[in-house]
């Protein structure tokens, strides 16, 4: 499938400091690309280079096959974007702000403004001045401006910021609908890892300006660590039994037995049965899946394997 | 061209909805009001005697007639216009940075320089509108006071000086726009406007005002009593300054990194 967004060794340096360091990524049509990174990792600088707002020190970016540059304005016909916190003209109403975007993009049909307000639940606020909007509604207005011309490519920087949980779900569903039904290519930068894991079909991790990992959602699932934790009244004896059966067992700092053995993780009931037979019934049996946050931290090498528990099934209390 | 018209419309709506622009606009109404008041004081010596110091200040305006009144309005535009037109420019360019809306104007399907051109056109429009407003209020007040020496020649000359002074002052708005871009807001250009106003007074006082762009409109309006003279060198210096501001602003919008 065609690469809609394509960067090649995109680099931005400020006085020797590499804010973005040789970032090469590809986003195909209809993909939702989650761009993850800590604050200052280079996410916004990368997006600004993709939008031609900052000239790369070296490297290039292409969108829809056209090279991005400040002078090539034709590339923006099919691009909608929202960079960092969205701001609107404070003394203009929601509708007037969207009317302005209509004119700037030379769009026909005033119904488009009504439709996007309806879609983003902004209709009740259409006559409210932007300066009086809540943070969540200001965010919705920013997204509405990005979507008004129904772009084929969307570049969104932290789109879930300021939204309440219901708003986050709405925007997620909206973006998924755009990607899956209309083939919109979406590039989202975020630090809300849980949100990215729910929406992205491909994930790129940027750290200290470098794209340290790029993987598809399926690959992420394969590479996430899954481990089995168990407790018995006699951990030493239980570990001995399981080791004799060929499992690799370790003890963590809480005295729990831990294994990443593939068979054990997939068949915790078999281990429970074996321990019961050995008169060492488990008092706790738990399959723990690494969440995206932990995976991310592991990738950037800041937090080893000390990952948080996910909502994986808890077999025994 | 159609695209540029759309952007001009957008800039017009933004400025029309802005309180700052309207406050600035009406603040300049003070010019014909003050001028008219001085004329009234000069025309009524008994009032001047009661007013004491005020009467003495009013003497600076010359005599109570239409030529003096026109000259006072032109001088007001030559000096006050630097601030008022500069304020329009500072706001129209600088607010995009202060309100952080500039990023929404950078990746659109038209050349970025169109935005700067549209903004300059809107600055020009507001500057012309406020000049017309001042002139109209001036006529009304002058007529209400009943100033003498009205004639077609006086009107033509008065309007000619007023128009040229306004054009010269408006041309000096372009460097203000450049400062708004470089300073990324409206405070830096306002500071620039104030500094140029102070320097123009000092440089004109030491006799080099003809070569200092920001002193030229006021000198042309006969602020030093030397007549409505515009030297070629002054025109060149002023146009050069204006061109640097215009091209610099367009260049900034086209080439500068927008962090």
From TrEMBL, chain B:
Source domain of life: Bacteria
UniProt keyword Membrane present: yes
Signal peptide: none
The UniProt record lists the keyword Transmembrane: yes
Keywords (A to Z) from UniProt: Membrane, Transmembrane, Transmembrane helix
Transmembrane stretches, start-end: 20-42, 69-93, 114-145, 157-183, 190-212, 232-253
Record PANTHER family: INTEGRAL MEMBRANE PROTEIN-RELATED (PTHR37305), MEMBRANE PROTEIN (PTHR37305:SF1)
Protein name (Swiss-Prot/TrEMBL): Bacitracin ABC transporter permease
